[in-house]
Write a structure and sequence with these properties.
heterodimer, A: about 290 residues, alpha/beta, Rossmann fold, 2 domains, six-stranded mixed beta sheet, B: alpha/beta, Immunoglobulin-like, 5 domains, five-stranded mixed beta sheet, elongated
Chain lengths: ~290, ~600
């Protein structure tokens, strides 16, 4: 990409963020995220009475001295989480004065940064109808540079066909799937959600829309050109046409929300005019996806 | 609905232009969108709202077309015909006599009538035959069966009111004859006189109004020994009392001013003594402005001819001599035989009674009484006399129409073509008068002693008339005229054509011919100049034309409307032009508003 997607200030802010997960991690790698299972780690969780067969090393001798009973210290077992970030790279994302595509890449970069800082793994999957990239999987804080490089190389062309493409991706084990798209193809979204749910993913849908789509200022006699499909349509927009559009947009968003609720996904609407901090801090933290250390 | 003109309909082509412009302008703007998914649904919904949406979309075009239509219609000057009239044949009679110059407010009665009639014409349907008649001194058809409204309006605009008097009733016969030729004719009389339409179908637009008007009816003078005594008669012919000054001018110099206070209908005589006997024109003027100004001035010409020299060649005609003694302004030289007659002596009038010199004098007018044949006429046998009476009313028999006299015998005068008879004896034309080669002559074919005519009281009057007839040797018979009166011209046969200059200094050339045609152009009051060039010498005379106040100045009565109906109202159509223009402006403002809102 020609633009510098991330700046230093933004990363400084993200440094202090950590992502929490709602679902337990089921992965072989130990990582920086809490698991529901108690285990060996430095983070204290609880006490319980000793029962035969327990690890002697975890007996709290201070407590024995005080209560004359054997108590075991229970620590949260930390496991490495896997974040799948799906980026819609169809042509429709290459739209808006504040480009939806660039916005998506920045958001993906930001999330990746947070994820890597939390000692978790990130997999990036760009998808459209033409390309079927496997994406890259990165772990470790140093991997951010590779991610940035990878993101910067992404181009937006082709059409969206999320279900066909995502379904072909090798998703193993439980994890978090973040899909960044404008979701103009609702039917495919449904299939995608079913697939990811089946794969045991916690799904986060981020619908990226530009101001031009949310509050269009079109008027008069127009020839609308679908940049993705290369279809054209003559339309005359006068009077209440814009109100009709907004109603249709609301219906469209509501449909996606309904679909998200149905498959237990989290829905976030991102306006490209919003800054990334707002999306990360407000949308992600308020929904318990990330929190401060 | 009728239209004053139709050619602006050509502008309607511009409507097609506006539509074309919009069609060309219809090139749609390209706009990229990420997906048509939502817009397809919008399109379906928007489409469902047509045709109203279509109208909204093209509202500017429709408004522009509407403005164009209104403007084009306003050029057509549409008139509603609600309450208007329809005519097939309309005869408009305009009274153009002096009284129509009287004012109603700021405009004259004639102008008011003309405006109303123009409105009426505009409101009539195209295709009505309109005939225009003016009724002034006489009735005249100005336009016959005009159909073109513009032509009719122009004709009406060109009509002029004169100062002459006239009788609008005289136009009835003309209207009647024109009505017969056109089916469904209706006449409208625009006048301020009251009269009955009799059997003529039509209405009278009576413009008579009560107003303020005083008139000078007469300014007259009498030459006295040392001075001139002038008398003026002023009448208040308006409905209100009149207060003002009467000024007497002598050759444009003010001589005297007298204040007047006249109640409605009152007349007054004012007299003046003017010491200057050399004044040639007296002018009376009323200073106070009133509703009819033309009758506020009166001119009177002073005739100061030197006395006429008359030669009476008669053996013993005492009766003629006595009769001549009553005539003023003459000097009579009596000669009783040819021996005492000197041919070299020049006289203005020669009276040959029974004797004629061998050669007639070269100049001067002549009276022959019982003379033998001479250069001018041939005398036949003596005829037995009978009862004499006046042949017809003419200048010699003025005021003596009833004279009857006996004659013992008279000479048979062979009537030349230039002679007209004025007395018959028995059934035969006996006495003649006429003019030959610019010389006037009168022939009495009997001895005065053989007739009792000399004993009749009318005899001196007849002699007076004779001298009057012969003594006026100028171009004009008299100097004072009433507007519309014809002017009899007696030009010098050796001169060129007569030129008459009106008070507005318009020249009218009267071709020289015999008998001379009368001049009938005294339509406006004022001083007229008559000129004729005779042998390198310019002869100039003036005549004064005054307003016929007794007939045309009355402003005491309000006009009684046509056939007892209420006020004559021309229910002309309403001109919609201003309304259309206002509507166009309103729509233009709406368009601006919409355009501003859209952009």
């Amino acid at each position: 990409m020609q633009e510098k997607i991330f700046d230093k200030d933004f990363f400084n802010q993200l440094k202090n963020l950590k992502i929490i997960m709602k679902t337990p991690i089921n992965s072989a790698y130990a990582g920086g995220r809490r698991s529901k299972e108690k285990g060996v780690s430095v983070e204290f969780s609880d006490f319980r009475e000793y029962s035969p067969g327990d690890d002697f090393r975890r007996v709290d001798w201070n407590a024995y001295g005080r209560f004359n009973k054997l108590y075991l210290k229970i620590f949260m077992e930390e496991r490495e989480a896997l974040f799948n970030i799906f980026i819609d790279t169809s042509k429709s994302m290459h739209f808006g004065a504040l480009n939806k595509g660039i916005f998506s890449l920045r958001l993906a970069g930001a999330i990746s940064h947070i994820v890597l800082n939390g000692n978790d793994r990130v997999r990036l999957f760009p998808f459209n109808s033409e390309e079927n990239k496997e994406g890259i999987t990165i772990s470790g804080r140093a991997g951010i540079n590779r991610i940035l490089k990878y993101l910067e190389a992404i181009e937006f062309n082709g059409t969206t066909n999320s279900s066909r493409n995502i379904k072909t991706l090798p998703i193993k084990g439980k994890g978090i799937s973040v899909i960044l798209s404008d979701f103009y193809n609702l039917e495919e979204l449904k299939e995608t959600l079913i697939f990811l749910k089946h794969k045991g993913q916690e799904i986060i849908l981020v619908q990226v829309l530009s101001q031009e789509e949310l509050e269009p200022t079109l008027r008069g006699d127009l020839k609308l050109n679908d940049i993705e499909e290369d279809n054209k349509m003559d339309i005359s927009l006068y009077g209440k046409a814009m109100e009709i559009y907004k109603d249709k947009l609301d219906e469209f968003i509501t449909d996606i929300k309904t679909l998200s609720r149905k498959y237990g996904a989290t829905y976030i609407l991102a306006n490209t005019e919003d800054n990334l901090e707002k999306i990360i801090f407000k949308e992600f933290t308020s929904r318990g996806i990330i929190n401060r250390k | 609905m009728s239209f004053v003109r139709l050619w602006p309909l050509l502008f309607s082509l511009s409507i097609a232009g506006v539509i074309l412009l919009y069609m060309l302008k219809q090139k749609r703007k390209n706009e990229d969108v990420p997906s048509l998914a939502l817009w397809r649904e919008v399109f379906r919904d928007v489409k469902a709202k047509t045709p109203w949406e279509k109208l909204r979309k093209n509202i500017l075009m429709f408004l522009q077309i509407l403005i164009l239509i209104f403007l084009i219609f306003s050029f057509l000057e549409p008139l509603t015909l609600f309450g208007g009239r329809e005519f097939r044949n309309l005869i408009l009679v305009f009274d153009t006599t002096g009284s129509m110059k009287g004012k109603i407010g700021e405009i004259t009665k004639f102008e008011r009538g003309r405006e109303e009639i123009k409105k009426l014409i505009n409101s009539t349907k195209e295709g009505a035959n309109i005939t225009i008649i003016t009724s002034g001194k006489e009735s005249k058809v100005e336009l016959s069966n005009g159909r073109d409204k513009n032509e009719i309006i122009k004709k009406i605009d060109d009509l002029k009111v004169t100062d002459s008097s006239g009788n609008i009733e005289d136009s009835l016969s003309l209207v009647r004859s024109l009505s017969n030729s056109g089916e469904g004719s209706e006449a409208i009389f625009v006048t301020d006189k009251e009269f009955s339409l009799e059997d003529v179908k039509g209405s009278i637009y009576n413009l008579a109004k009560k107003g303020k008007n005083a008139s000078i009816d007469l300014v007259s003078y009498k030459l006295e020994k040392d001075n001139i005594s002038v008398v003026a008669r002023i009448s208040n012919r308006g409905a209100q009392s009149y207060e003002g000054d009467f000024s007497l001018y002598g050759d444009d110099k003010i001589l005297e001013v007298k204040s007047l206070n006249l109640s409605s209908g009152e007349s007054v005589n004012v007299s003046f003594k003017v010491a200057d006997r050399n004044i040639s024109i007296f002018k009376g003027e009323l200073s106070e402005k009133d509703d009819l100004m033309e009758d506020n001035v009166y001119y009177s010409l002073v005739r100061t001819e030197k006395s006429q020299k008359i030669l009476l060649l008669s053996e013993k005609n005492i009766f003629m001599e006595k009769a001549l003694a009553t005539v003023q302004g003459i000097e009579v030289f009596k000669v009783n035989s040819l021996d005492n007659y000197n041919e070299k002596d020049e006289y203005d009038i020669y009276i040959f009674d029974g004797i004629v010199p061998d050669s007639l004098p070269a100049k001067g007018n002549l009276i022959f009484i019982n003379t033998p044949t001479n250069d001018l006429f041939t005398v036949g046998e003596d005829i037995e006399g009978g009862e004499g009476k006046v042949t017809e009313s003419n200048t010699i028999t003025e005021n003596i129409k009833n004279i009857k006299f006996g004659v013992r015998s008279f000479k048979d005068i062979q009537k030349a073509s230039y002679l007209k008879s004025f007395l018959n004896i028995g059934e035969k034309e006996a006495a003649f008068y006429g003019e030959k080669d610019g010389r006037k002559l009168i022939v009495l074919p009997f001895k005065l002693n053989d007739s009792d005519i000399v004993l009749k009281p009318q005899f001196p009057i007849m002699v007076h008339n004779m001298i009057n007839y012969l003594s006026l040797s100028g171009i004009l018979e008299k100097g004072d005229y009433i507007a519309g009166e014809e002017v009899e011209l007696t030009p010098n046969i050796n001169g060129e054509n007569i030129r008459i200059y009106t008070p507005d200094n318009e020249e009218k050339v009267m071709a020289l011919r015999f008998p001379m045609k009368n001049y009938d152009g005294t339509l406006n009051t004022g001083i007229y100049t008559v000129k004729q060039k005779v042998l390198e010498e310019e002869k100039e005379e003036i005549l004064a034309v005054n307003f016929p106040s007794q007939l045309e100045s009355d402003m005491k009565e309000e006009g009684v409307t046509s056939e007892g109906k209420e006020e004559f109202k021309i229910k002309g159509g309403r001109n919609l032009t201003p309304i259309l223009i206002i509507l166009s402006i309103i729509i233009l403002m709406i368009e601006w508003y919409i355009y501003g809102k859209r952009s």
